[in-house]
Inverse folding.
């Protein structure tokens, strides 16, 4: 619910807020399948794919190696759990599942800008399934996990590029 529809709504209705409020009224067990499964998986494992930490790290390192093979990016590495980095960036689940190429765009910008950044190996998903399903408690848990990672790694800035 990005809210873009609100920019062109002739009645100036806060459509995203309206949809979210309607979703929050639905009984949790009646939330549509994919949304409910995504929320449960994210709460149980930190990401809706149920991707184990080791597999996530493997994917990040593998994509980073591909970037490092490109001209101008020799020696590139994707920092994972870098303590004291300037920026923590979350990752949309599809970027480690089916669209790994799209990780490279952000990383190349960070590299060119000499940004001191990192991803976290736990609770890395930027999609807040609590928000999408209208579950305020789950939303708070998911946001809290990101804040916990920022505190653990002593990072002051967050980028949620979803």
């Amino acid at each position: 619910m990005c809210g873009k529809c609100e920019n062109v709504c002739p009645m100036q209705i806060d459509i995203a807020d309206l949809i979210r409020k309607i979703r929050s009224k639905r009984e949790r067990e009646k939330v549509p399948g994919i949304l409910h499964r995504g929320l449960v998986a994210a709460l149980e494992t930190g990401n809706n794919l149920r991707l184990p930490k080791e597999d996530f790290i493997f994917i990040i390192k593998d994509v980073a190696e591909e970037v490092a093979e490109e001209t101008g990016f020799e020696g590139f590495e994707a920092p994972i759990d870098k303590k004291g980095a300037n920026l923590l960036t979350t990752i949309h689940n599809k970027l480690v599942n089916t669209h790994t190429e799209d990780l490279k765009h952000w990383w190349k910008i960070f590299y060119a800008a000499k940004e001191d950044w990192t991803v976290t190996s736990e609770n890395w998903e930027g999609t807040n399934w609590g928000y999408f399903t209208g579950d305020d408690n789950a939303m708070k848990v998911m946001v809290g996990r990101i804040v916990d990672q920022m505190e653990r790694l002593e990072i002051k800035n967050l980028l949620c590029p979803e």
About this structure: The longest strand covers residues 87-89. Residues 13-159 form one domain.
